Amino acid sequence: MKKNIMALVLFSLPMLVQAQSKEDAAYHQVIRVTTTNQTQPEQSNNFKAARGQQNAVFITQIGNKNTVDSHVKSATDTSTYYQYGNQNTILATVNALEVQQDIRQLGDDNRFEKYSFDATMANQIQVIQEGNNQEINVFGSNSMSKDMKIHVQGNDKTIIVRNYQ
Prior knowledge:
The chain is an alpha/beta fold. The protein is built from two helices and eleven strands; from the N terminus they run αβαββββββββββ. It has helices at 2-26, 45-51, and strands at 30-37, 55-62, 67-74, 76-84, 89-95, 98-106, 111-116, 122-130, 135-139, 148-153, 158-162. The longest helix has 25 residues, at 2-26. The chain is globular, with a radius of gyration of 22 Å.
């Protein structure tokens, strides 16, 4: 009797391990947020507190295998990331005076990338991706891209925005 139970346990163990690894992979979410305060050299911490400078990053993910990778260096960062669907990706690497981002992905396999390195400008953007397999790439910032709004609907769409001075 003991040998039968031991054999049953040994044969069941690989199936239990296999089932566990598949379940974990189905609900995998990745969130990486790096926010660094950037101020002028003459500004002290008291001055920053008096002006109310702060960072607030809000992330909502509903679905499977969604990724947010945000690296922001600014005096003030107010970013909202919303992903409703599966396998959506947000990559934001921003160095700016002030950052306000509202990125919404509604669908599956959407990708948003933003790269901006002008530390003297405010950086504000609102993006809504409604559909599947959309890709939006935004490079740089200038006066024309201030308060930029992008709203894409449909499937299999790509937008590339290049903002250079």
